[in-house]
Write a structure and sequence with these properties.
Elements: H1 2-20, H2 24-30, E1 51-57, H3 69-78, E2 81-87, H4 91-100, E3 107-109, H5 115-123, H6 140-148, H7 150-156, E4 169-170, E5 191-195, H8 196-202, H9 210-222, H10 225-230, E6 238-240, E7 271-273, E8 279-281, H11 286-300, H12 313-321, E9 325-330, H13 333-337, E10 344-346, E11 372-374, H14 381-389, H15 394-401, E12 409-412, E13 418-420, H16 423-430, H17 434-441, E14 448-449, H18 453-456, H19 462-475, H20 493-520, H21 525-537, H22 541-555
Parallel strand pairs: 1-2, 1-3, 4-14, 6-9
Antiparallel strand pairs: 3-11, 5-9, 5-10, 7-8, 12-13
Helix pairs in contact: 3-14, 6-7, 11-20, 20-22
């Protein structure tokens, strides 16, 4: 029955894709144009075309690109002109219509095609192979980046070995604050904090181990510190409150004492990349079992918020900002604790019962190639790519992301780094906030911002500087192993079908069972064995592992095994 249902599901999925994404079936059947300009792996030397039609996105505040001073200057320098068809809404629908009818522009920009779509459109010839153009001859700026960052090239190379779109992404990392090592702002998504004023009142030090934190939480509860210290209602103290398996406000940072932090929201965040290059799910390891058993005791003692499994981030902020909570997780103390922020400090990464710890880092802000895709309608891609290669100049992409020099960027510091306009200056000069100004000036498309740009070209936003500084100072010293499963792995169409089929059920089963064990206790040997069997037989665990292993092997240059 399962196989029969899956065949039905796959047929349904293909039909849905054909209707909503305009896949090759529609192009082949309905196309009425004869495009014969391209051969995979071979650059088209034709340079006769100088006028191009581009269809794509624009931000909600953007007036369009016809009068964009940066774009117009780049067109002039490249010796081309562009007829822009951009829209704020209904873009996907209009793109589908154009592809299905074979009425293709020269390129799609800012559409955000998935790798699944890119592979299919590349396979049927709708998108041309850009590989032969990614050289110093045609695209010197981009080819230099790809040579220096082979992981970016891997991220945009589809499973057939070809590249059908230009890379896009923002790598906001600690290099942007001058750190010698470059860690993504997403590396550790949860920062833990504790009320030090309560600790001082009780004569307790800032905990360095889970056992010490347990003792502190118990003291917070026994002494009803919210009532005692802030004068709140008796019994209002919540020793520890977080979300459950939430990105920046979950409980997962405390699992570090058991050697891992299985960051939530995606099955990839539970993958462990071992020294031998193989992958496994953390949720089936002994460390994971020990962790959920350990924290059940905290929950049973009333030290963890009973509403942690259901509350929203707004509800958590409300509790914290009223002085009820002793320990919580968030990116910024001030944002979570409000007027009580001065009483809180960050917790270090805490040693577990065996005296060890490890934080599992994650990459984030992945690279994709769905923001600029040249179609087979383009007669002279070399001319168009000359224009887009300028986008990979740091000072140009800065203006594409935020706004022109002289408008959004108003001056440079002593090191030649561009400084953005302040809200006050923007209001005075333009009658709008700097964020609104950015929204008007921003251009969708293949914007690749590397971490070092924030040191060499333009200043990072203050909020991001604060978070990256905290990350580097408080959490990265506790990372024993920086190996992580790359978010830029490219999957085949078949692999994506397998992920779609199994991933949701797998994630739901793990999350549900984790919550039950923390609340109710366990797992016993019988429960644990049943859990593993369920993930294997009902949730496709082995199939998912094969998919992720093969994708990683291709990414790292190995030959996948089926």
């Amino acid at each position: 029955m399962l196989k029969k249902n899956r065949r039905f599901y796959m047929k349904k999925r293909i039909l849905t894709c054909a209707l909503t994404a305009g896949i090759a079936l529609s192009v082949t059947a309905c196309g009425n144009q004869n495009y014969g300009h391209h051969e995979k792996g071979v650059a088209n030397p034709d340079t006769s075309q100088t006028q191009f039609a581009i269809m794509g996105a624009q931000s909600a505040l953007s007036p369009g690109y016809d009068d964009n001073v940066v774009l117009n200057q780049l067109q002039q320098e490249a010796g081309i002109s562009i007829d822009w068809t951009t829209m704020k809404e209904s873009l996907a629908e209009q793109v589908n219509i154009r592809i299905a009818g074979g009425e293709l522009p020269d390129a799609f920009m800012g559409v955000g095609f998935s790798n699944y779509d890119i592979s299919r459109y590349g396979d049927d010839g709708t998108f041309i192979d850009l590989t032969p153009y990614l050289t110093e001859e045609y695209m010197p700026n981009l080819s230099k980046i790809l040579d220096e960052n082979p992981d970016i090239r891997s991220a945009i190379t589809m499973d057939d070995g070809y590249i059908y779109g230009l890379p896009a992404g923002e790598r906001m990392g600690t290099a942007g604050i001058g750190a010698p090592e470059d860690y993504s702002i997403y590396s550790v998504p949860q920062f833990s904090m504790i009320n030090k004023a309560w600790l001082d009142d009780l004569g307790l030090p800032v905990p360095t181990t889970l056992d010490e934190l347990h003792a502190a939480l118990k003291a917070f509860k026994d002494n009803d510190m919210s009532a005692k210290y802030y004068g709140n209602a008796p019994g209002s103290t919540i020793p520890m409150s977080t979300g459950f398996d939430e990105w920046c406000w979950g409980q997962n940072i405390f699992y570090a004492g058991f050697g891992f932090t299985n960051w939530p929201n995606d099955v990839c965040n539970d993958l462990v990349l071992k020294d031998d290059g193989t992958v496994e799910f953390m949720c089936v390891t002994d460390q994971y079992r020990q962790a959920v058993s350990y924290f059940h005791d905290w929950y049973a003692e009333g030290l963890m918020d009973v509403e942690m499994f259901s509350q929203t981030d707004t509800q958590l902020i409300s509790k914290c900002s009223q002085g009820y909570v002793g320990v919580s997780t968030w990116w910024y103390i001030e944002e979570l604790m409000g007027d009580y922020a001065k009483d809180y400090v960050f917790l270090p990464i805490l040693d577990g019962p065996d005296g060890t710890h490890n934080v599992t880092i994650r990459t984030g802000g992945g690279i994709n190639s769905g923001q600029l895709n040249i179609t087979k309608a383009c007669k002279s891609p070399a001319n168009l790519l000359k224009f887009y290669d300028r986008w990979y100049d740091p000072e140009i992409v800065m203006q594409m992301q935020y706004g022109p020099i002289g408008t959004y960027f108003t001056g440079q510091d002593e090191n030649g780094v561009w400084l953005s306009i302040s809200d006050e200056e923007s209001q005075e000069k333009y009658g709008k906030s700097s964020g609104e100004l950015k929204g008007e000036c921003e251009v969708a498309g293949p914007k690749l911002i590397l971490s070092d740009y924030y040191q060499t070209t333009f200043k990072m936003e203050d909020r991001a500087i604060e978070r990256l500084t905290d990350l580097y100072d408080f959490w990265m010293p506790y990372v024993d192993d920086t190996a992580t499963y790359p978010v830029d792995c490219v999957f085949t169409g078949r692999e994506l079908d397998d992920i779609d089929w199994y991933k949701g059920n797998f994630e739901s089963a793990v999350s549900e069972q984790e919550g039950l064990w923390i609340k109710n206790g366990g797992p016993t040997d019988e429960e644990w064995n049943a859990y593993i069997e369920h993930l294997t037989k009902k949730c496709g665990m082995e199939k998912l592992l094969t998919v992720y292993q093969n994708a990683y092997d291709r990414y790292s240059g190995k030959t996948p095994t089926e």
